[in-house]
Amino acid sequence: EAPTVPDAQRFGHSFKIIFKMIWKHSLVFLICYFSLTVLYNFGLDEEQVRNFEALTSYLARYTRTFNWMIMLGFFTNTALQRLFTTQMTIPGTDRITTLFTMSLKPNLPEGPAIVDLYARWTVLAWILTFRIICHPLRREFPNLQAIQDSGILLEEEKRILLDEDNPVTVTPRPLVVIEWMLLLLKESMKEDRYIKESSHIKNVEAVMAFKKSCGNTIKNIPYAVIQAVVLVVYWFCTVLTMARNLRAFKNEFVRNIISYFPVMPYIQFFVFIAWLSFGRAAVNPFGNDESDINVMQLCEAHIKHSFRLKNLYTNNLDEDVFRFLP
Amino acid sequence: EAPTVPDAQRFGHSFKIIFKMIWKHSLVFLICYFSLTVLYNFGLDEEQVRNFEALTSYLARYTRTFNWMIMLGFFTNTALQRLFTTQMTIPGTDRITTLFTMSLKPNLPEGPAIVDLYARWTVLAWILTFRIICHPLRREFPNLQAIQDSGILLEEEKRILLDEDNPVTVTPRPLVVIEWMLLLLKESMKEDRYIKESSHIKNVEAVMAFKKSCGNTIKNIPYAVIQAVVLVVYWFCTVLTMARNLRAFKNEFVRNIISYFPVMPYIQFFVFIAWLSFGRAAVNPFGNDESDINVMQLCEAHIKHSFRLKNLYTNNLDEDVFRFLP
Amino acid sequence: EAPTVPDAQRFGHSFKIIFKMIWKHSLVFLICYFSLTVLYNFGLDEEQVRNFEALTSYLARYTRTFNWMIMLGFFTNTALQRLFTTQMTIPGTDRITTLFTMSLKPNLPEGPAIVDLYARWTVLAWILTFRIICHPLRREFPNLQAIQDSGILLEEEKRILLDEDNPVTVTPRPLVVIEWMLLLLKESMKEDRYIKESSHIKNVEAVMAFKKSCGNTIKNIPYAVIQAVVLVVYWFCTVLTMARNLRAFKNEFVRNIISYFPVMPYIQFFVFIAWLSFGRAAVNPFGNDESDINVMQLCEAHIKHSFRLKNLYTNNLDEDVFRFLP
Amino acid sequence: EAPTVPDAQRFGHSFKIIFKMIWKHSLVFLICYFSLTVLYNFGLDEEQVRNFEALTSYLARYTRTFNWMIMLGFFTNTALQRLFTTQMTIPGTDRITTLFTMSLKPNLPEGPAIVDLYARWTVLAWILTFRIICHPLRREFPNLQAIQDSGILLEEEKRILLDEDNPVTVTPRPLVVIEWMLLLLKESMKEDRYIKESSHIKNVEAVMAFKKSCGNTIKNIPYAVIQAVVLVVYWFCTVLTMARNLRAFKNEFVRNIISYFPVMPYIQFFVFIAWLSFGRAAVNPFGNDESDINVMQLCEAHIKHSFRLKNLYTNNLDEDVFRFLP
Amino acid sequence: EAPTVPDAQRFGHSFKIIFKMIWKHSLVFLICYFSLTVLYNFGLDEEQVRNFEALTSYLARYTRTFNWMIMLGFFTNTALQRLFTTQMTIPGTDRITTLFTMSLKPNLPEGPAIVDLYARWTVLAWILTFRIICHPLRREFPNLQAIQDSGILLEEEKRILLDEDNPVTVTPRPLVVIEWMLLLLKESMKEDRYIKESSHIKNVEAVMAFKKSCGNTIKNIPYAVIQAVVLVVYWFCTVLTMARNLRAFKNEFVRNIISYFPVMPYIQFFVFIAWLSFGRAAVNPFGNDESDINVMQLCEAHIKHSFRLKNLYTNNLDEDVFRFLP
């Protein structure tokens, strides 16, 4: 009865995500920061103290005057908008399998078997595509045998996909499966299984749209862009551990605040690391992070849907579901 | 005769929205601010005053040099653009029900009942989808019984949706209803109820587009992004209550202004909280806020529309609406 | 022979727009600014002068350090992009009426009357929709009688739209008209007036797209966002009239420039007010401003088009327009 | 054999574009700058020198503290994205004419004449549309006679377009031509010239899409926005010629650099003027600038294409093009 | 079994990309920087040292106060979003060739030859288009002979494309090939080779979409924009080699850090050059860079696909691929 999470829980959950995202970095940051504080207070002679103060204030100047935030803002903005587009255009199996099921003449003897075959192949093409970009799915299905064990792939199909001598196998595997689907459509047309012949081309077009959508999923923001942003943010955070404008504050109380309660540098650090993390997650939306698109769940949903489809073909509303229909 | 609100009223109304959005935060901000002023003026000895002045000017420096606004600007910009996309792509029930009604042969004896069934199921799928993301709707319809009481769900349908032993129920409920709709389309085709057979696939495609649109509605900006932004803005506002650059102003008059009329910090505070609120509302556009998409009103409109549809099927323009037609 | 305005004229025209947009604000700004200058130079004793100088330099610091421009930049950027989307997706009547006209069999005796009816209703639905959001159109058509006077609405139709006892009238008026159009489509199908039966569904889909487009036009940027931005910009401009960094400039000449020729503050003021105005106009693109979408002109064009349509139905290219055709 | 320009040439070419874009402004800037330098060094008495130094350092402060760049950045960003959308959605004549040609039955005796007529009218509608917004095209075709001379318009058609008494002429001319096209489609349907009757509606929809695309081309960023940005940038550049922070630099060498080698102000000036020029060009993409969309070339391509179409209708692949076909 | 690269490798790979992108610039930057350091420390007399210090601190002021980053941020943002659009809309050959193959009646004797012809011409049009914008592809296919050698072009076709006297050749070559395709479609219709006649128009529309997509690929961000940004970034980096705020730091240790370990200027330099490189790569996405779209690989994939298509036409699922079908 409760498909949605209560808000308080969701609130706590998202803090957990932020915490998981940031605790390692925070630990390193704070250890470095306090080590430098200890060094400054107890480990340096008078001239070294002067040098330390001069150097840290020189660095503090750089953390303030260069617009690091602008670069990161543009990057994360671009990445998030990319994420939304990906969310919207991620390929689904439901549309094409339902369309095929509904295009077939009802009461064909071979109907259920064909619907089953088509739905299974769609899911198979989907899994073979997402294995290329999605780590968790690759861990779930490390090889074709694992896919066969889950019932998505038959022995004979695996043999064809693996057959090295077969000239077909030089093509990417998802494309092989999509070609089987097209051949099945052709056969359905030849055997006169469609309600209307014009459905044939509609189904072909749906398969081609599915294929294009699979292809688009693989394209992504060039990895080197992310690497460069990561480098710069880490560099900035390193400077941040050192930067402290001690010479500008003669007041002992403030100097202690700066040395032992670095709340202001920490919040800067927090903004940068958190913002970077979201940008990274948005750039690679099929990973392990909790804010990523949950491909495993999607995969299960697609498998379930393919099982339900047989019912859609065989059931009749008035006999199998309801009795009150007109 | 006046479907639009006069501008003056709308002006006042939007101020009310802003006021409601901000008054609690403002109160806390001002209490903190003035408490610190009182503390500074009456509660500290001379050295504490010096420390206070030093600390607050240290914080004031941070409120000026770090580009907090850029982060918030990018966040709210991303969120608002997301909101527009959501507004445009929010699923509606009118298109698919009208399409179905107009595809049927006129004068079928079972026609009105079928149109009614289809329209009701569309609204049902819509409500079951929006209950997942929309608090007010979940409060309106806390369980299936509430939906049944409003006449959208029949006893027998509820039984099927609730039937735990039925293998169908492991699927999300909106999908179950959408499958009923597809079965009804199949039946209409088998019973030869369409004016043209080709309408069958058109209706199937319309249902699949409705389903995808429902699915997209649930996707959203990762909640952790918002949480991180909220954290940072609250942190900034906390610093803002403390930051006051008293040492830079020897003039007693300005020091009093800073202490007792914090208009400049308050406007900064206002910008941040207001901007954050819009970003938050845009991220979760189906909430309770007055600037949110009014899902309850949409729901009512969809229900009303589904009732009107039967007229669309049975009425004739020249007999039931006008008499002057050619 | 000259449908485009010469550039010089257009140049002058756009200055006129800017001037109209800004002159009232400019006047208030300059009066405040010079009043404060006069007060400072002639109305204050020595201590008050010191206080004035201290206060104004305190405010001047805020106009420089806080990134007001970023907030406004993001707002206007969002609003302008929204405006382009609106421009592109604004509903038009031509497509659906032309489609209907061209779908009908030529030489039907009732053809011209039906085309006329359909075209008129489309314009009627368009006007009833835009009256909700567009002030100039509401002033042109304050009530249904005004629409009837312009010949777009018949007496009998008005009666139905106004009939309070009729259960139809609880629906929004544009929807009532759209239902008439759908009924007319149904009748055309039943009376076998289409060239091809498949045109029926095409026309239904076109009407539904028109309806959705009308619905989208009403959605807009939450009014409270604009209000908040307006508040902040006015606040900033108030501060700008007071802010003057007199103490930083001992030189008498510069002090006079600052006091009597506030060109630098004025250009800041100009940027803010102009930018805000464009943002506002973009947010409410159907208003009275000269840079707004000219709905009145659009409305006229749609009405004219609906009159031309009858010719499109009855005319033959070779008899009524040209004689040289093959 | 070389349809692409070598890179070196392209490099030089783009420098030429930048140079052409900026040399006049640069000249004025540098003359003003050096005049002020000469005035300062040789034309002022001691007190005037002090005033000059005070004033220029007051202005220098403004060039640094106000975020002029942000406003310009947002403006050019918005304009460039608009340009890309325009590039993608610019109406083309190929699609609709090819579609019509391929929809006709082959071997109609009147076929070539009709294809020719339709293709010519499409180009005519295209030219009449772009004359409204594109200066070079209006110079090429100052009136209907010029269009007739190029063979796109016949005497009789011109007469109709010019006929002031004809009630048709109150409609915009491109729309008149589009109506001729629709009438030709209707006639083709009546005369049973289509391979399949369903092509009729497809062609009508293609013409309506062409019409909408023509309409969208005319819409643009409000001219007043550009004017306001131009005003502000020119104002900023004027300040830039005066601003020089001489008092902050006691060193004679740096003062000479500032006075005689204003490379740093010039690069600021360059960024602003170049950025503004791109923004302006993007806002009015059909102008004379070398980075604009080359409408003349497009126009020629469309005219050529319309001539080729007759071949597409009459030629047979196996007889007229190749001999080796199966 | 491993179509994806391990992450560690990918990590190293992207560093290599960044390194390749930046090492030449870095070398020049560091050589200039250290040369100036050596000059300052050993090559100047006392007054020259003072001048040097004054000049470098004057430049340092400019690197901090002008918002160079904003310009670059907007530019790279615009360019990256353009890149994503290009990635998504890049024309592919699969859709149209598969559609044609599946539209033909099975078992036509001339079927395989026609499918082969159509698929080859599609690839040919694709290659002729991308040769215009893509250097690597032009190096692979420097002239038509090279294309013929790879088997994509026949002798007779090459002759037609090269025939200078033939009036056809004034049209761009990709368009000539697309016209052959349209003629082939027309012939297929005349010879009654389609399963359904309505497929004819579908195929024509698919070819027109392919043509438009090819045309869009050639359009790009005006080259002069990039040139202007490059100029400004190089200028900024030149200033960066000179700018060093030596006078602000009396401390010898910090002065040595500034002179010999320019880590802070270098990271600024790194951000600018890296960001610029990504912007440039995104603007010209079909070049040689490793982060560019790999057109050569795409080309191979399209050629392979065209070979596979004959199988799709001739194979039967139950005879040639599987034996277990219903």
Describe the structure.
- The structure is a homopentamer of 326-residue chains.
- Among the domains of chain A are: 8-66; 108-216 and 299-315, no CATH class.
- Chain A contains 15 helices and no strands.
- Chain A has helices spanning 7-42, 46-65, 68-89, 94-103, 111-133, 135-140, 144-149, 155-162, 173-190, 199-218, 223-242, 252-260, 263-283, 295-314, 317-321.
- In chain A, helix 5 packs antiparallel against helix 9 and helix 5 packs antiparallel against helix 14 (295-314).
- The longest helix of chain A is centred in the first third of the chain and has 36 residues, at 7-42.
- Chain A starts with 6 loop residues before the first helix and ends in a 5-residue tail after the last helix.
- In chain A, 43% of the residues are buried.
- Mean pLDDT of chain A is 83; it is low at 1-6.
- The interface between A and E is large, with 72 and 69 residues.
Briefly, what is this?
In chain A, 75% of the residues lie in helices and 0% in strands.
Topology:
5 copies of one chain form a homopentamer.
Chain A: H1 7-42, H2 46-65, H3 68-89, H4 94-103, H5 111-133, H6 135-140, H7 144-149, H8 155-162, H9 173-190, H10 199-218, H11 223-242, H12 252-260, H13 263-283, H14 295-314, H15 317-321
Helix pairs in contact in A: 1-11, 1-13, 2-11, 3-13, 4-5, 4-10, 4-14, 5-9, 5-10, 5-14, 9-10, 11-13
Descriptive keywords:
homopentamer; 75% helix; disordered N terminus
Beta-strand percentage range of chain A: under 5%
> Structural class per helix/strand content of chain A?
mainly alpha
Question: Could you tell me the number of beta strands of chain A?
Answer: 0
- Assembly of the depicted chains: homopentamer
- Give the low-pLDDT segments of chain A: 1-6
Q: What general outline of chain A do the C-alpha atoms trace?
A: elongated
The largest interface is:
A-B, 70 and 74 residues
H/E element sequence of chain A: HHHHHHHHHHHHHHH
**Share in helix of chain A:** over 70%
> Distance between the terminal alpha carbons of chain A, to the nearest Å?
31 Å
Mean pLDDT of chain A: 83
Number of helices of chain A: 15
Radius of gyration of chain A over alpha carbons?
29 Å
Described by strand count, sense and barrel closure, the largest sheet of chain A is:
none
